[in-house]
Amino acid sequence: MRGVIKGFTILVFIITATVWVLIGYYAAAMPQQFSVTEGKTLRLDGVVTAVRDNDSAAPRAASVNGTTHNETLRLFGVFPIKTVRVQVVEQPVVVVAGVPFGIKLYTDGVLIVGFTDVDTAAGPYNPARTAGLRVGDVVVSVDGRAVNTNEELKNAVESSGGSYMTFVIRRDNLSFSVRFRAVRSQTENCYKSGFWVRDSSAGIGTLTFFDPDERFFGGLGHAVCDVDTDEPLPISAGEIVAAEIYDVEKGSVGTAGSLCGAVGDDAIGNLVENGAAGVFGILTRMPGACFRTMPVAMKQQVSTGSAQMLTTVAGTTPQLYDIEIVQIRYSETALTKNMTIRVTDPVLLEKTGGIVQGMSGSPIVQDGKLVGAVTHVLLDDPQRGYGIFAENMLSASGMTAQSAASA
User: Fold this and answer.
1) What is the pTM of this model?
2) Rounded CA gap, 157 and 404, in Å?
3) Which pLDDT belongs to residue 63?
4) Of 174, 193, 329, 356, which has the maximum CB count within 10 A?
């Protein structure tokens, strides 16, 4: 009898510990806020259910656009996990694109990307390091005058005559002043700053969606980052241009492939934001060969299993290719890695080896909805990569908030 009681006690302990581990896991994994469309309830997987606060029965359908309420997430419908905020929004509908585009981006200030010692009369010296500057800092102004190009900064430094200047520096979204003094180079016979800067960037990506009425667009699914610092480039201006894919460098294990494209000269849109969830802006003319209009899935409507990726690997016309959504993450700390995906389409695998550079922003569709966009490839397995929820891109662009506000 004692053995039975002991065994039962151990079993209860194991079950209790498992429940607490699962509660902790889902509490960290679940976001603080969800969105639902009018007439829909918040439905999650079978392990976690949602119950609207003050409702003793099953959760009732949301009714009024623009309203919010609280719901409690429960493990197995019993154990409370956390309370989340649920916003009722109008069903977002966008044109799903999948077409390639070129990016021309000009920074807001100039970005410090590296250091180099200056050969002074007294020997090698770096005034930038002495002043406490860092790679990734943005020089916003010199002596009260804004600088947005490499040439503007170079002229300010060379004309300083070695006098102290006041740099306004932006670092981690904070701005502060630095007293800076350039030094004369013996070999070049001019004043030098001791750092390298960049004022622009260019590349090819994939347009994810646009609003046919407002002409607001989103693409890439991640920020345009500097190749040296890996930090998002702050933009003062930018544009997108039409592009055509003429070749593919096939990816392999350890080597990222890429789409090879030619970009046009005429802009088709102006960039407004280079953010963590992608690049956003306003179209000045409609891109050709886009897919079709689709509703956007809320993140909880995305499921593991079969899906399709819309991308362009030749010319300007996108095509659908089969993929599998392997894993879903709701975590708000991994904005561009909400999904793990795997390419299963034999045609695409033969052509590209899987996911390659330039596919970032390629729409992911499932059950007749836009559910996300491709963001990254896994170098050790180019058939696999990550994707961002389409809802997160829309939220970053402000479109869902605008929809709710206009209802």
Assistant:
1) 0.80
2) 50
3) 55
4) 193
